[in-house]
Design goal:
The chain has about 120 residues and is mostly beta strands. Helix content is about 0%, strand content about 50%. Strands 2, 4, 5, 6, 9, 10 and 11 form a 7-stranded mixed sheet that branches. The protein has a 4-stranded antiparallel sheet with strand order 1-3-8-7, with no helix packed on it. A hairpin with a 6-residue loop joins strand 4 and strand 5. It starts with a strand and ends with a strand. The mean pLDDT is about 95.
Length: about 120
């Protein structure tokens, strides 16, 4: 089990950028797959991006590809989500999760979650 804390959210104008961070404690993030999800008001939590442990392969939701970049800093036990050219539809609470067994695009594939960080994009 690992504890996750997200940070970096905020209010940004459409077209702007943000970098979210997800820091792990209680375990090395290098031992886990890390995923970013988001949940907009009235909607279900949805997959955004994935960083696999080991070779660090990544995966993205089709809707965010080319706008978002996931990366990890093993030494800092942190996974990042860089978001560029943001649009209002990206407004949501962003969560990171950790998975021990396999990288997944499903919420149920993650055992531990952070508390989320709010991203608001004004148009």
């Amino acid at each position: 089990q690992v504890q996750l804390v997200e940070s970096g959210g905020g209010l940004v104008q459409a077209g702007g950028s943000l970098r979210l961070s997800c820091s792990a404690s209680g375990g090395a993030f290098s031992m886990y797959h890390g995923g970013w999800f988001r949940q907009a008001p009235g909607k279900e939590r949805e997959f955004v991006a994935l960083s696999m442990r080991g070779f660090g392969s990544t995966g993205y939701a089709v809707s965010v590809k080319n706008r978002l970049n996931i990366s990890r800093n093993t030494a800092r036990d942190t996974i990042y989500l860089e978001m560029n050219n943001l649009k209002a539809a990206y407004t949501a609470v962003y969560y990171c999760g950790s998975a021990s067994y396999s990288g997944s695009k499903e919420v149920g594939g993650y055992a531990d979650w952070g508390q989320g960080t709010q991203v608001t994009v004004s148009s």
